[in-house]
Amino acid sequence: MSQLAVTVIGPDRPGIIADVTEALVGTGVNLEDSTMTLLRGHFAMMIVCAGPLDEVKAALEPLRGELVITVRTMGPEHRHAPLGAPYMLSVHGADRPGIVAAVTRMIAAAGGTVTDMSTRLSGGLYVLTAEVELPPTAELEMLNRALEITAEELGVGVTLRPAESDDL
Amino acid sequence: MITDWSPARLDVEGAILEVVRAPHPVLATESAPVDPLDPEVIQLAADLIETMRVSPGCVGLAAPQVGVAAQMFSLDVTGHPKTRTCHGVFVLCNAVVVEASRNEKAREGCMSVPDFTGDVKRATRLTVAGVLPGTTEPVTITTDAFEARALQHEIDHCNGKLFLDRVAGAHAVYPRKTYQ
């Protein structure tokens, strides 16, 4: 039994999740983390699960065709220690190439890491939302200024704000 | 008056109880109403306050979180940066929401769900009715901001609901990065 990464993408229709997960259950797979969403009419799934590689591949075989499926083994779970406080990053503005690259480069340059991100394009509007972890040593003021300058060059708006949760 | 009430009125020592974690079934159980004059209820009230007091960052603790399916919880949002109206420290029995308005979304964490946080919409203007332990007179609390959110979170516990039952979207649950 190894940890597997299963990715599935294909034109959306009712029943994709049911079909894929039913096939996985049949091989005794236990689903762990997954994320699934609809991207411009294509349903996309990424699943991390524990199961036997060859049996999982065989079980998913009949679904190939309209669905593009990959199955591969992964090393043991790798969790980096939390870098620091979580932040929410949002960017929106007129679409053009290079927005994601430029903004995420700023985060990386500050020693930060993106833990979750999604982007959407609708008409001419591009929207990026990301969860970002910044180390305590990050110069927030410098980062904010760098983001502002980049955003201005790209013609978009950017905000970075703490995503602290309240314990109840 | 709820602001006149203090734990000293319970006249018993509180004990520190173990906080249970999901998926413990008591957290998904609708709790039974309590008799606020019952000595066991008064003892549990003192225990809730004591357990809340020794748990870092804890502003509220419901009976189901210490394994007891009873309609009561302790609360104290004193000094929290998001608190506006504040009724100090109290325990409320058999609490129900009377009026709720002006929803706002914020990220919540819970001692019973230590590995996740989630975005939850809650009323920021709230009136709650209940009874203080050791008394029989109904009290109403009208509050806002953080105290309103905390009250709704604790009342949910008493009804077998976690913040996980109320998250604001399919991608609104997050792994918690640090937990003290």
TrEMBL record, chain A:
- Domain ACT, which positions? 5-76, 88-161
Q: Which superkingdom does the taxonomy of this entry point to?
A: Bacteria
**PANTHER family documented for this protein:** UPF0237 PROTEIN MJ1558
Name of this chain's protein: Glycine cleavage system transcriptional repressor
Task: Tell me which species this is from.
Answer: Kribbella aluminosa
Species classification: Bacteria, Bacillati, Actinomycetota, Actinomycetes, Propionibacteriales
UniProtKB/TrEMBL annotation, chain B:
Tell me which residues this entry annotates as catalytic: 154
Cofactor(s) the record lists: Fe(2+)
- Alphabetic keyword roster: Hydrolase, Iron, Metal-binding, Protein biosynthesis
Q: Supply the enzyme class, top level.
A: hydrolase
Q: Where does Fe cation bind?
A: 110, 153, 157
Q: Name one Pfam family in it.
A: Pep_deformylase
- What GO molecular functions are on record for this protein? peptide deformylase activity
Q: What is its EC number?
A: 3.5.1.88
Q: Which InterPro entries match?
A: Peptide_deformylase, Peptide_deformylase_sf
Task: Give the cofactor note text.
Answer: Binds 1 Fe(2+) ion.
- Reaction it catalyzes: N-terminal N-formyl-L-methionyl-[peptide] + H2O = N-terminal L-methionyl-[peptide] + formate
Write out the function statement from the record.
Removes the formyl group from the N-terminal Met of newly synthesized proteins. Requires at least a dipeptide for an efficient rate of reaction. N-terminal L-methionine is a prerequisite for activity but the enzyme has broad specificity at other positions.
Family that this chain belongs to: Belongs to the polypeptide deformylase family.
**Name of the molecule in the record:** Peptide deformylase
The species this protein belongs to is: Kribbella aluminosa
